[in-house]
Amino acid sequence: MTDRSPESQPVAALPSTAQPSAALPSTALPAALRITPDDEIRRVRLVRMKRVASAMLVVVAIVYVVARIYEAHHPAIGYLRAFAEAAMVGGLADWFAVTALFRHPLGLPIPHTAIVPSRKDRIGTALGNFVQRNFLTREVVQEKLSAMKLGEKAAQWIARPENSRRLATAAAHGLSGAVNVMRDEDVQALVDKGIVSRLRAMQAGPLVARAFELLTTGGRHQALLDDALRLAARFLEENEELIRDRIRKESPWWVPGAVEDRLGDKIVSGVEKTLVAVAADPAHPLRQRYDEAVERFVANLRDNPETMARAEQIKLDVLNHPGVAEFSREVWTDVKGRLGSYAARLADDAEREPDQIERWLTGLGHKVLEDAVLAEKVNGWIVELVTYSVEQAREEVARLIASTVAAWDADATSRKIELQIGRDLQFIRINGTLVGGLVGVLLHAASGLMK
Question: Which residue has the higher pLDDT, 155 or 228?
Answer without folding.
Answer: 155
